[in-house]
Amino acid sequence: MQKKPYISMPVIRRLPRYYRFLRHLDKRGVTRISSKELSEKMGFTASQVRQDFNCFGGYGQQGYGYGVHQLCEEIGSILGVDRAHKCILIGAGNLGKAIATHISYNFAGFDLIGIFDNSEQVVGQQIADLRVLPAAGIRRFCSENAPLMAILCVPDSAVKSVVELLYDIGIKSYWNFSHYDIALRYPDTIVENVHLNDSMMTLCYRVTENEKSS
Amino acid sequence: MQKKPYISMPVIRRLPRYYRFLRHLDKRGVTRISSKELSEKMGFTASQVRQDFNCFGGYGQQGYGYGVHQLCEEIGSILGVDRAHKCILIGAGNLGKAIATHISYNFAGFDLIGIFDNSEQVVGQQIADLRVLPAAGIRRFCSENAPLMAILCVPDSAVKSVVELLYDIGIKSYWNFSHYDIALRYPDTIVENVHLNDSMMTLCYRVTENEKSS
Q1: Which residues belong to any copy of the CoA-binding domain (chains A, B) (predicted)?
Q2: Where in chain A are the domains?
Q3: Confidence (pLDDT) at A4
Q4: What is the pLDDT averaged over residues A12-32?
Q5: Cβ contacts of A101 on chain B, cutoff 8 Å
Q6: Which of A130, A156, A213, B30 is 20 to 30 A from A105, comparing alpha carbons?
Q7: What gap in Å lies between CA B76 and CA B93, rounded to an integer?
């Protein structure tokens, strides 16, 4: 299959959902699915599904639908979930522990090779087969192991100096759970933000509005 | 100030960021800020900022900027962060613990009144001043305490039956960390999804693409 050079960001953001869903079908032994069925189960329109899949080369056959396994593999490969990019995690509180455990056992796209914290109570703890290392050792560890991405689960008060250090070491990709706007400060970075607080406040707004109107 | 009846979802999703930022300024004793300064610090355009604030009645004065404290209070009130809606959390693993702790100590918009889990190892543990209760007691607890919102930190395999129960009890608002599409199944619910996996896969894609092109 020929790979198209450009897939737009909205399509990319839908790919993980397709991937998840198709993998589920694949595991259950479903071999083919039509765009109509897929769209109904996922809450998109059928034409949206066809349009999305066309972006990276199609796979559908009129009247036969999509081959589930092949499509799943292809989307997985586009997403790069089979690459095992080396990454480190900074901040091993509850959130850091949850993320570390999840990545180590459920996701092949990143290979978690180091977990760091600056609290004496946390350093030395075992999380997902890794021992938490002291934050003071980040620079040396990175120069020896060259991770590509860092997961930031540190408090807002610490994140600025942590990113300064990591960027200086050469890490340019971040999964950021803090509120620090990395991409605004360092435009050449790749950043995915998870702003739990913003999501919670948005929910709070919607619940409040709903109460007012009911 | 007159409140406009409708604020669009994109504006609402930006409000938490404004709120966070303005509260930070307010705490530091900053009393006024211009749309230009705000926009530079937040990475929006000044006209975007003015447009957003106009949606709920303005506050800016030509040449004087915005009153930080007043604007912060107003946005907080629109978001409903001062309402303390009662909520429960299901699933007290690492993620559940992180969320429970965060909500209890950092967010006034929701009042966490119950934490539930079905694992014997977890039930009875103390998280953020609450003792984890057995999942079997959810129905009774809800009929006595009438929470408005549920936070779902349960595994994907358990979430469908948990939502069935909660919806049946009358809970219509969810902060959902699982992949189950609640709103597709129950269109009259208010749902904020946090799809950590999708965010991670999107990052994986961007890192992969970046490697290919460099």
Answers
A1: 80-181
A2: 9-79, 85-198
A3: 46
A4: 90
A5: 94
A6: A156
A7: 30
Among 1.10.3720.10, 3.40.50.720, 3.90.700.10, 3.40.50.970, name the CATH number for the domain at A85-198.
3.40.50.720
Question: A96: annotated binding-site residue?
Answer: yes
pLDDT at site A58? 61
Would you say B132 and B92 are in contact if contact means Cβ atoms under 8 Å apart? yes
Looking at residue A54, its pLDDT comes to 82
Q: What is the total residue count of chain B?
A: 214
The DSSP H or E segment spanning A151 is: strand A149-152
Tell me the chain B residues in contact with residue A205 when contact means C-beta distances shorter than 8 Å: 12, 15, 78-80
With a cut of 90, say whether residue B81 has pLDDT above it: no
* pLDDT, position B214: 74
- Smallest CA–CA separation between A156 and chain B, in Å? 12
- Residue owning tokens 């962060």: B81
| Touching B: A residues 13-72, CB under 8 Å | 13, 15-17, 19-20, 42-43
ipTM: 0.86
A188-197 long-range contacts, Cβ below 8 Å, gap at least 24? A190/B203, A190/B206, A190/B207, A190/B210, A192/B199, A192/B200, A192/B202, A192/B203, A192/B206, A194/B194, A194/B196, A194/B199, A195/B16, A195/B17, A196/B99, A196/B102, A196/B194, A197/B16, A197/B20, A197/B102, A197/B106, A197/B107
A100-104 contacts at long range (C-beta below 8 A, 24 or more positions apart): A100/A127, A100/A128, A100/A130, A100/A151, A101/A127, A101/A128, A101/B94, A102/B95, A102/B196, A103/A128, A103/A151, A103/B200, A104/A128, A104/A129, A104/A130
Encode pLDDT of B89-141 as tens digits: 999 999 999 999 988 877 778 999 999 999 999 999 999 889 999 999 999 99
Mean pLDDT, chain A, whole residue set = 89
Could you give the CA distance from residue A102 to residue B155 in angstroms, rounded to a whole number? Answer: 11
* CB nearest B109 (choices: A94, A195, A204): A204
* CA angle, residues B70, A155, B87, in degrees to nearest 5: 65
A92 at interface of B, judged by CB pairs closer than 8 A: no
C-alpha B73/C-alpha B83 separation (Å) is: 13
The kind and range of the H/E element at B66 are strand B66-67
Looking at the predicted structure, is the pLDDT value of residue A62 above 80? no
Which fold would CATH assign to domain B9-79? Answer: Arc Repressor Mutant, subunit A (1.10.10)
